[in-house]
């Protein structure tokens, strides 16, 4: 970056501190054998990470609170209206160092540099680390941003983790009633996040402006056949839940490959019961994660897939049930905020580039109650949800300066 503005801002974003904080956070929940990070909601790793970001927020001059759902909120400046920055610090199993964490750490650093320059914003700035964005433990995520958008319902909290704990049982009493967390004073929400895809890399660009976010429908499919002896049961009398699941999973892939929309579908979790080498599987559950930017298309595709899976279950005389785990609305981001980001990007002599997010983000929920925009940072080889997830120091710092400049516009 050679414009004097960025060199001026450069001295104001403490790059060493920013990168150290990212490194320090990434050591919490690190699996030294794989390099993967395991930091799930309502665990000691999350608690440790929350105290670390609370410390960073306080050092940045923020007052910190944790709401009843578990969102960690750093507040800087005065006033009712809020410019909100944030993301999440929880991870998928064996996740990477940057997914979510980058948005929280860079947001704290932006406030820290404002604080060091004694810049008092005309509106209050909040940095939020949203609770349980990934949904790793309870099968549905975005809990913190759902609560802030008034979208979290009691019945959703009855999802259970592998050990039979429900979210409801993990929340403190003062989390209820849930609708008390709905926010109405957010003037703008800006989230920096790694792209988790290959578009920016293919464009040879460090950052991009997100104009739309595809949203997921998550379902859990349960198939019941009959557990029987693997040796004594002839093939023609079996009621094998796993071979039925196999045919269904390939059918999901076939329907998505054939669909002419940008929709994607993934079966990421599969659970076989009783899971014995010499036992014909009696029960199988598997997840379906379906995404599209177009809500109508998404619903139609979802209905079509369920119909086709039901046909396979009937043909195989296997009982079939589906449970909706979560349905999030795809969103378009705010045009004015997109243009603000673009003008900051131009100031850094980078060509502004717009793209859609295939991954879901807290911004989808906050978009229901405020104008939002996201700034994507290039992902090496597009890899994410994987210990190899990587964004370069240079790209991270460029993105931080761009977001810093945009925040300056919003708080003057
Ligand atoms: O699933 C997602 O898109 C995000 O990583 N939670
Ligand atoms: Mn700048
Ligand atoms: Mn993620
Ligand atoms: Mn994320």
TrEMBL record:
Keywords, ordered alphabetically: Hydrolase, Manganese, Metal-binding, Zinc
Note describing how the cofactor binds: Binds 2 Zn(2+) ions per subunit.
Superkingdom: Bacteria
Molecular function GO labels: hydrolase activity, acting on carbon-nitrogen (but not peptide) bonds, in linear amidines; metal ion binding
Cofactor(s) needed by this chain: Zn(2+); Mn(2+)
Residues the entry annotates as binding Zn(2+) 2: 99, 134, 385
Keyword Zinc: yes
CDD domains: M20_bAS
Positions annotated to bind Zn(2+) 1: 88, 99, 193
Entry's transmembrane regions: none
Domain Peptidase M20 dimerisation residue range list: 218-313
Manganese is among the record's keywords: yes
Pfam families associated with the record: M20_dimer, Peptidase_M20
Family label: Belongs to the peptidase M20 family.
Subunit text: Homodimer.
Full protein name: Zn-dependent hydrolase
Record organism: Alkalihalobacillus trypoxylicola
Phylogenetic placement of the source organism: Bacteria, Bacillati, Bacillota, Bacilli, Bacillales
């Amino acid at each position: 970056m050679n414009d004097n503005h960025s060199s001026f801002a450069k001295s104001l974003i403490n790059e060493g501190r920013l990168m150290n904080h990212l490194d320090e956070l990434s050591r919490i929940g690190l699996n030294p054998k794989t390099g993967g990070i395991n930091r799930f909601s309502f665990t000691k790793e999350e608690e440790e990470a929350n105290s670390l970001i609370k410390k960073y927020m306080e050092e940045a001059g923020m007052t910190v609170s944790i709401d009843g759902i578990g969102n960690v909120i750093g507040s800087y400046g005065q006033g009712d209206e809020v410019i909100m920055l944030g993301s999440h610090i929880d991870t998928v199993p064996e996740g990477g160092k940057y997914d979510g964490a980058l948005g929280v750490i860079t947001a704290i650093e932006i406030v820290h540099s404002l604080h060091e320059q004694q810049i008092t914003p005309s509106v209050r700035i909040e940095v939020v680390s949203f609770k349980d964005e990934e949904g790793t433990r309870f099968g549905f995520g975005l809990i913190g941003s759902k609560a802030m958008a008034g979208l979290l319902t009691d019945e959703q909290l009855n999802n259970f983790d592998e050990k039979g704990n429900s979210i409801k049982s993990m929340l403190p009493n003062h989390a209820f009633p849930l609708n008390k967390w709905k926010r109405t004073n957010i003037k703008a929400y800006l989230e920096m996040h790694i792209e988790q895809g290959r578009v920016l890399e293919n464009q040879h660009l460090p950052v991009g402006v997100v104009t739309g976010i595809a949203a997921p429908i998550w379902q859990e499919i349960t198939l019941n056949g009959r557990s029987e002896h693997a040796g004594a049961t002839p093939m023609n009398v079996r009621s094998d839940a796993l071979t039925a699941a196999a045919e269904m999973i390939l059918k999901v892939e076939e329907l998505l490959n054939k669909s002419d929309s940008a929709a994607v579908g993934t079966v990421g979790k599969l659970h076989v019961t009783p899971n014995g080498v010499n036992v014909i599987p009696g029960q199988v559950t598997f997840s379906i994660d379906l995404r599209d930017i177009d809500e109508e298309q998404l619903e139609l595709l979802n209905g079509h897939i369920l119909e086709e899976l039901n046909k396979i279950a009937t043909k195989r005389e296997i009982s079939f049930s589906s449970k909706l785990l979560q349905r999030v609305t795809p969103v378009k981001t705010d045009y004015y905020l997109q243009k603000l980001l673009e003008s900051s990007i131009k100031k850094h002599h980078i060509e502004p580039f717009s793209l859609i997010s295939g991954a879901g983000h807290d911004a989808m929920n906050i978009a229901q109650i405020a104008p939002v925009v996201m700034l994507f940072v290039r992902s090496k080889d597009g890899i994410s949800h994987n210990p190899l997830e990587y964004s370069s120091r240079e790209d991270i710092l460029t993105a931080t300066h761009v977001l810093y400049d945009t925040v300056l516009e919003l708080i003057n």
